[in-house]
Write a sequence for this structure.
């Protein structure tokens, strides 16, 4: 038994010294000290040892176990230290290198302008509603009093997916969808991306953004429209801003108008920014056409309303004095970080 224990001990020590990885040491621990290990097998065979020799043999087994465990711990400590040193060499930090700055983005000027407009109208009791960018021709044109072959379609030439499905040329279809629900009164704002077959230049793009507003209620008049938009202009461009309405034509409103605001650069005196006129065109508006109300299931004899639409990019261009619309889409950090 003594020879057997000495042989087990020497073999274990040899394997420990030859090990170069922590995984191998763990395998040695299991092979010699585990439940089915060599020393455990010796202990199980104690029944074959004479009773008077059992304490001596048991002590020899414990001594062998203690020595093997000590050598294992020593070897593991050495290997762990080597592994830590190698890790530190690989992960060394050169403190002489310049630090990497974390570049944090910020809100796009279009989004800044949109949030400002939404804040103004939500404060007046309006609800912001969005709709699909891919729209039926009937919602984009016909239900807005623009039947097929109407000349107004030339001004809003858009991209057709099929004969009946288009990329919307305005956010007015969102207004029609809201009116069709029949929940009156309505005070809504419809922002979103629209598409038109325009050439790209400093003031045009085939894809841009619109913000349209709609109010439907009893006894709504043009005076309500003027008062609302005048307050909007003062909130957006300054308390001294004045507005001017010029007669115009839109198929879905009657009467219709274009609204100008006093130049916020010169205060209406005339400058290069307003081309000497003192006024800047800002949006189109008008009273909702009775035909549009009727097609949406609203009685024009009982209800009336007004609508308006403004280009989001136009607001951003004017408010931040940007002279080229393309700058908003080029994602040049030198331009965007100014906002």
């Amino acid at each position: 038994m003594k020879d057997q224990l000495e042989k087990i001990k020497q073999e274990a020590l040899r394997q420990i010294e030859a090990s170069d990885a922590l995984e191998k040491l763990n395998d040695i621990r299991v092979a010699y000290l585990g439940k089915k290990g060599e020393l455990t097998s010796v202990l199980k065979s104690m029944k074959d040892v004479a009773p008077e020799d059992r304490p001596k043999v048991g002590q020899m087994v414990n001594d062998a176990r203690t020595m093997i465990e000590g050598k294992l711990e020593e070897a593991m400590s050495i290997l762990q230290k080597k592994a830590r040193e190698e890790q530190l060499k690989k992960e060394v930090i050169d403190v002489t290198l310049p630090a990497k700055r974390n570049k944090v983005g910020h809100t796009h000027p279009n989004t800044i302008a949109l949030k400002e407009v939404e804040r103004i109208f939500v404060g007046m009791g309006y609800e912001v509603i969005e709709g699909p960018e891919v729209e039926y021709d009937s919602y984009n044109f016909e239900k807005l009093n623009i039947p097929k072959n109407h000349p107004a379609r030339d001004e809003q030439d858009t991209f057709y997916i099929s004969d009946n499905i288009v990329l919307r040329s305005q956010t007015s279809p969102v207004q029609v969808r809201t009116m069709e629900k029949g929940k009156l009164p309505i005070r809504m704002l419809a922002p979103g991306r629209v598409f038109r077959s325009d050439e790209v230049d400093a003031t045009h793009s085939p894809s841009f953004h619109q913000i349209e507003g709609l109010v439907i209620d009893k006894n709504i008049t043009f005076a309500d429209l003027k008062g609302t938009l005048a307050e909007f202009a003062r909130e957006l461009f300054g308390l001294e801003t004045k507005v001017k309405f010029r007669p115009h034509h839109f198929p879905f409103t009657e009467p219709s108008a274009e609204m100008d605001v006093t130049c916020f650069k010169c205060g209406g005196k005339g400058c290069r920014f307003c081309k000497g006129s003192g006024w800047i065109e800002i949006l189109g508006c008008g009273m909702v056409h009775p035909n549009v109300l009727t097609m949406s299931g609203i009685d024009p004899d009982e209800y009336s309303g007004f609508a308006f639409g403004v280009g989001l990019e136009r607001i951003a261009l004017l408010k931040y004095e940007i002279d080229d619309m393309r700058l908003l889409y080029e994602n040049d950090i030198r331009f965007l970080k100014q906002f």
Q: What stands out?
A: Residues 109-336 form a domain with the BirA Bifunctional Protein; domain 2 fold (CATH 3.30.930.10). DSSP finds twelve helices and nine strands in the chain. Residues 117 and 202 are 23 Å apart (CA to CA). The longest strand covers residues 207-217.
